Amino acid sequence: MRSAIVVAGTRAPANVHGVHGAAGVTQWTCLAGRAGLAGEWEAVEWARIPPGGVSGEHLHTRTGEVYVLLAGQGEVTLDGRPYAVGAGDAVLTAVGTRHGLRNLGAGPLEWLVVELPAADGAEAVGSTVIRDLRRTGPVDPSAVIGGPLRLLRFARTVPGERVTHAADGVEHTLFVTAGGGRAAAGGVRLPLRPGTALTLPLGTAVALTAGRDGLEYVHAELVVAGAGGDVGAGVGGGGR
Fold first, then answer.
1. What is the 3-state secondary structure (H, E, C) of 16-83?
2. Considering only CA atoms, which of 121, 118, 58, 120 is closest in space to residue 94?
3. Are strands 197-200 and 54-59 parallel, antiparallel or unpaired?
4. Preceding peptide of 50 cis, ω within 30°
5. d(Cα 197, Cα 25) in Å, to the nearest integer?
């Protein structure tokens, strides 16, 4: 049986207090989880902290994690070493890494999270910051954190352009960051606006049509074991 595309958004986030032991409030939304997906996803999430806010340092013992910074300026620590980060940067965090995030800007710091269970027997290389994923992408996160996530990029389309994503051997998460348009899947039509997330289970497909301001979205693609998927993206520059 074909699963349904998972549609979610950021308009009504939860307020979470004391994330990873830090004081203050984090706004948070789960955009997709394991349910209904064939691939090795843990979760796709969105988070936001106010100026001065902190997502506390913590050790990843079971999962790897990808952050894509969507808005604001901050500082991420990787095993105690600080790195300045801002909108458009990506952070790849391997299993066994301690990391945290602090908002150093005048406005909210927002980021997208893709979390993945560690692959059995797989060795992660480490963790890194990729500067300006819009310019340096696409990247292959598996080269750093291991696992089946093989593509991470910002995708951009011009007004009226139509693109199709099919979950054939792979599964996709798409998160709209700018512009707008509409999505069509089977007989269902829905508007696209910043903060809209679509996650495509194996066997589904969606057509995106950009509106008058074009459409930009974060695109993550995960190979499903045994489903015949193969992604050939290389690692982009800018890692630190």
1. EECHHHCCCEEEEEEEEECCCCCCCCCEEEEEEECCCCEEEEEECCCEEEEEEEEECEEEEEECCEEE
2. 118
3. unpaired
4. no
5. 23
Nearest CA to 197 among 214, 183, 187, 211?
A: 183
What are the backbone angles phi and psi of residue 161, rounded to the nearest 5°?
-70, 145
Cα(83)–Cα(208) distance, integer angstroms: 35
- Residue reference for tokens 């693609």: 221
In which element (H, E) is residue 142 found?
helix 142-145
Of 43, 52, 134, 156, which is closest to residue 90 (Cα–Cα)?
134
98-103 and 54-59 beta bridge pairing: antiparallel
Dihedrals phi, psi of 144, to nearest 5 degrees: -110, -50
How far is residue 209 from each of residues 49, 132, 172, 200, 203, measured CA to CA in Å? 31, 25, 17, 17, 20
pLDDT single digits (tens) 95-118: 888 899 999 999 999 999 999 987
Q: How many CB atoms lie within 10 A of CB 232?
A: 7
Tell me the pTM.
Answer: 0.90
d(CA 115, CA 42): 5
